[in-house]
Amino acid sequence: MLPSLIGVICILVIPYINVIFYAFINVWNRKFVGFDNFKRVILNDSFQLAAYNSLKFIVTCIPILLVLSLIIAVYLHEHVAAITNTFKSIFLFPLSIPVVSIVLLWRLLFDDQGFLNGIFNTFSIKGVDWINSKYSFGILVFSYLWKNLGYSIVLWLAGLSTIPKQIYEAARVDGAGDKECFCYITLPNLRSTLFVTMVISIINSFKIFREAYLLAGDYPNKSIYMLQHLFNNWFRDLDIEKMSAGATLLSIILLVPIVALYKCWNTKE
Amino acid sequence: MHVTKTRLALIISVILAVCGMLSGCTGFDEANKENASKEIDRSEEIKELLLPENIDTVFDMVVMEDGILRLVATIGNEVAIYDSGDKGNTWEEAYNSTDLFEKAENEKVGAYASKSNEIFWKSLEYNEDGGVEGAKYYYMKESKIVPVNLKLPEIDKAKREHNEEFEWLPESAVNYILNTEFSDDGNLLAMDENFDLHYINIENGEINKSYENNHGYILGCSQYNDMILMATNHEILSWDMNTGEENEDDELIDRLNNTYVKESIPSFESNIVLKHEREQLYVFNSFGLFRNAENGVEQVCDLKGEGAGELLQQYILDAEVYNKDLYLIAINMQSNQYSMYWMDTTEKDEESVKEELTIYSLYNNQNVELAINAFEIEYPNIKVNYKVGISDGNIATETDVIKNLNTEIMTNKGPDILVLDDLPYTSYMEKGLLMDLAETIKADKYFANVVEQFKSSEDEILAVPSRIVLLALEGEVGLGESSDSISAIEEYIKKVDNQMNYSEEEFMQMMEFLYSSYVEPMIGTDTEIEEKLLTEYISCIRTLYSKCGYPELSDSWRNNSAEKNGVYVTVNYFNWVADDRAITFDYVDFVKLIPILNEITNADESKEYCLLSDNSEKVYIPAGILGISAASKKGELAKKFINFTMSKKVQSNDNITGFPNNKEALKVCLQDDRHNVYTNIDETTGFQIHPYTESEADKFVSHFEELNKPILRDSYIKKVILESAGNSLAGDIAVSSVVSEIMEKINIYNQE
């Protein structure tokens, strides 16, 4: 236990504390500046845009992902006799493909001279610059869903498999239909799975930056300009204080609801 | 039999004479062998040695495997080989040509190659008029001499006819070897009358491989690993030994050619020789001997100084390094007298580098490389590590590389000196990451107006551009009046008749030039940019595009002199000269271009060029911007480097691109007539370029003192604008939409 603890402290805790420290000082002359860095970050237009986009992405993708993956998982659980390892491998396959390869695929599909516009041109429909326009948000959402859907399905299936069948049998004996079984048996028993899936999905939503960066560079279309773009560019310009303040803010914003949610569900259980 | 004393003496003397002759023929003098163990007096760093008496020409020098020094020389038409076992203090004749082979009276020996106990030479037969009628070749190995039946190709008359490189070469009836060296594997590398190099089997005289050479007379050649290296009087070149293809992009050759001292030599016709001895590659010229080392080219000996006398008038013919001894053969170009020197290289070899300096550049900067080479020669106890962020084969993006650099800077492991050209130096300046150079850079030496942009609010000079680049537009008369703004340029282009033909790459270059000239200077230090300017730029580019012809003609039209009906947008003045009514541009980064442009426009009244720094916005590009990291622990050393780089000595080297940011150096470059290599830039026009007079140079210096609009490049903004403009050339997107798309991206960038 001790070696792991030391590792976590050295690799995670100490750097995290260091970041918080930098958020309260001027990095170059080491003077304490209080909350000035936070003010600069919060009032920064680019930060506001990036935060808005990141939040918009999460609010768009997470519900769709959770609902869609749950529906598919429930269907599979009820209608497919055995979810074999082969099935699981297929679901997890998108996660195993390197991001660069995925981006190459999206470029082939969505570039101005790409496959999709080619099909449109065949039908005399004017193509769109998907990557460099507002539609790039849709591409990112699509990419995220495509990549994480299978993983979420596997998680849901794992959760569903822990629900005893006897409960369903007993409910049917009492006259419960599919809808009642789903609402009053399946969903409550999947609460912990929901928590895990949601947290993991939120964390994965930040990883979409890799696709966005590889597709559209340091400064993509406004609609997909995320927090990581901002941090990336701040680091290039050595705006360490702003980066640290922004990262601290972000960790607070993420940590608070996750902890609250955790406590809430634990209490209910 | 009674032997009298007299007869005994005679017998003994005959015996001794025979022994002496025999020892001479074997080339190993027992007396010399004993003397070989004597150490040379190392109390002096350099000594002049005596050469054998009465020699006319020294052809070659070699240190044999046992340390015997061998000299191959001629006396009249005869060749003589001398050996010295006491490091050049005394000489004994080992052979002469009468011992070696039968030679007719009209034969003359030459072109030696020697390697330890092997010698190769030629013997030429001359006719009454002094022309060469025949050539014979001989190869000697361990006292055995054999003729070599070389089968050289015919003389290439077509090659010789129009090439002035051959003008000095007398006519000859046969093709023969002019210059030769042994290759590593014991065969021969020989240059013939066509200046081509051949790799010849020494045993049977057959040519294994030929290397076509169009670069002129080969002064020296060597085999080095898989390369054949050749030195002309301009440069060092290399060929792949096996394929015979010229290596045009070789790091070793670039490094050798970029040796600063090579560029600063006096105007000898020929003074670069290279040699490969004992797995070490050497280059030597009048300034000294250099060798290829792991981290660059290092100087083995310095011949500028007092120790070797007035060697600036001497030409180093040959050099040999053996253990700690360096031997040099030099010839005085005035008197044609040969001299031989010994130098002790002990100190150089064993001296450890005391101090190190690190210089970082995002992209390779050849000017910085030259400065580093010169600095290391000037201060041999300082080693400079030159790091380049993005080089050929490196696929990292600029952002990634800059982030790595920033990480190093943050952890105080960054470089000492930064070449700030493509780095976010405004950010570095704002954050106090650069050292103050105000005391280092002497105000009267540089152009203060150029340095102004790199001053902090507290008047600290945080960076200094080492070079200045100007911009020029070239076209028809009337261009100058239209060059003041991008919209005026657009009007000029509209008036141009017919189509413009150039390739996609050339068009992009033109786009980039117009952006650099008219948009980039107007971007403020806060990177704000006016929409109106952007609109005018996009509009101008579209107008230019609408006048375009197309890419499949781009190479053929340039070479086809019949295609002169259209108007051509070109990328260099050669084509502007050749084609009528072209518009072209130049980044004026070499001094001689201005006189060339003057000559072109003086010769043709319909042509005009204008320097954009003559306009109301006196634009220029500061280049080679140097700054010292504030975290550097070698601040004084770094300042020394910057001082040296900004000195007149370095800045007046006109092989460094750009104009010097040093007033005295600029005047020297403008008035310098040493390297008049640009006089024949164009065979049809035959320009004669004249250096500036003193008053013209003064006027040009004043021009520089008025420069006030630096193009402070921001690579992101440039990329966004050029990409968006390029994507919208077809005209199906309104200019206003393109501009608003660009402004949106730039605003995000600015707001960060």
Beta-strand content of chain B: 25-35%
- Listing every helix as H and every strand as E from the N terminus to the C terminus, the arrangement of chain A reads HEEHHHHHHHHHHHH
The interface involving the most residues is between: A-B, 22 and 21 residues
Mean pLDDT over the full residue set of chain B: 74
- Average residue-wise pLDDT of chain A: 89
Number of separate strands of chain A: 2
Shape of chain B: elongated
Protein name (chain B): ABC transporter substrate-binding protein
InterPro entries (chain B): Quinoprotein_ADH-like_sf
Secondary-structure blueprint:
The complex is a heterodimer of chains A (269) and B (752).
Chain A: H1 2-22, E1 25-26, E2 31-32, H2 36-43, H3 45-79, H4 85-96, H5 99-110, H6 115-122, H7 136-161, H8 165-173, H9 178-189, H10 191-206, H11 208-216, H12 227-236, H13 240-268
Helix pairs in contact in A: 1-13, 2-13, 3-7, 3-10, 3-12, 4-7, 5-11, 7-10, 10-13, 12-13
Chain B: H1 5-26, H2 30-35, E1 46-49, E2 57-63, E3 69-75, E4 78-84, E5 92-96, H3 97-100, E6 107-115, E7 118-126, E8 132-141, E9 144-148, H4 157-161, E10 177-182, E11 188-192, E12 197-200, E13 207-211, E14 220-224, E15 227-231, E16 236-240, E17 246-247, H5 251-257, H6 260-263, E18 273-277, E19 280-285, E20 288-293, E21 296-302, E22 314-322, E23 325-332, E24 338-344, H7 346-350, E25 355-363, H8 366-378, E26 382-390, H9 398-410, E27 417-419, H10 425-430, H11 448-451, E28 464-476, H12 486-495, H13 504-519, H14 531-546, H15 554-559, E29 569-570, H16 573-578, E30 583-588, H17 593-603, E31 607-611, E32 619-628, H18 635-645, H19 648-651, E33 659-660, H20 663-671, H21 694-705, E34 709-710, H22 715-727, H23 735-751
Parallel strand pairs in B: 25-26, 25-27, 29-30, 32-34
Antiparallel strand pairs in B: 1-24, 2-3, 3-4, 4-5, 6-7, 7-8, 8-9, 10-11, 11-12, 12-13, 14-15, 15-16, 16-17, 18-19, 19-20, 20-21, 22-23, 23-24, 27-32, 28-30, 28-31, 28-32, 28-33
Helix pairs in contact in B: 12-14, 13-14, 14-23, 20-21, 22-23
